[in-house]
Amino acid sequence: MDECRFTLHRIEGYIATLYLVEYKDKVLLLDGGARRDAARIEKFFVRELQRPLADLKLVLVSHMHPDHAGGAPLLRRSSAIPIAAHFEIDRWYRGPSGALQHLIDTVLGHYSARQQFGKLERAWYPRRLRPDFLLHDQESLPYFSDWTAYRAPGHTLHDMVFYQEKERVLYAGDLIIRIGEKLLPPFPTLFPELMRKTLQHMAKLPVQKLLLAHGGIVEIEDSESFFTSLLPQVGRCDHKSFRMIEPICSLVPDARIYRKSRTNQD
């Protein structure tokens, strides 16, 4: 069997869109979604795929926000499905300030869901993921060697994106979001210099299909010009509601350390 032949499925989660990559003998989940999304995934296997959940061999987590990391622990607990994520992902919410940020991010996730979709679901999740597989930059995924993990810091320090070279598909997580008809860098971008480097790095990949957690599927004709065109938008925020909550989005230790290092350099 050609390992690169797969079918892509979309599941509309509590806050984000989830993607299942279905092969003949196995399935890959691109991000774990929010807490209640675990049940949506299980139902999708039964009703749509008509195959056992045991065929789900790996759950990826792009970063630690509630709409990406919340469902993965439940899938592992209920069905022993392993999780793969950045090797330092559990540093993000460490310490007292990290615990406070975890609470704030969960509340903001509820706010986003209520504003966009009028929904309100239980979303609390552990602030430590404890991945079964620790991923490094440009490393092939366990069980899915045709996919490669890339570090993509900017939104958080431990974001990752996932690339399938043969089909030129990139799961971007929150690297890019769609607001109305516009494609933009995410909010917040806590590490703007790192975000610019990430976009420049992604511009070197021959991407044709971009999978967004917030914005669906985007077809790209010229990936280099697409990613470089986003560079002037990094660090800009034209939305009043986003600017109002920005001060409470950077309490995690890594963000404070980063700000201090930038101040010392200046």
Summarize the SSE layout with pairings:
Elements: E1 7-12, E2 17-22, E3 27-30, H1 37-49, E4 56-61, H2 66-69, H3 72-79, E5 83-86, H4 95-117, E6 133-135, E7 139-141, E8 144-151, E9 160-164, E10 169-173, E11 177-179, E12 182-184, H5 192-202, E13 209-212, E14 216-219, H6 223-229, H7 240-245, H8 253-265
Parallel strand pairs: 3-4, 4-5, 5-6, 10-13
Antiparallel strand pairs: 1-2, 2-3, 7-8, 8-9, 9-10, 11-12, 13-14
What does this structure look like?
- The structure is a single chain.
- This protein has 266 residues and is α/β, with parallel strands linked by helices.
- The protein has a single domain (7-233), classed as Metallo-beta-lactamase, Chain A (4-Layer Sandwich).
- It is built from 8 helices and 14 strands.
- The strands form 3 sheets. It has a 6-stranded mixed β-sheet, covered by helices on one side. Strands 7-8-9-10-13-14 form a 6-stranded mixed β-sheet, with no helix packed on it.
- The longest helix has 23 residues, at 95-117.
- It is globular, with a radius of gyration of 18 Å.
- It starts with 6 loop residues before the first strand and ends with a helix.
- The model has no long low-confidence stretch (mean pLDDT 92).
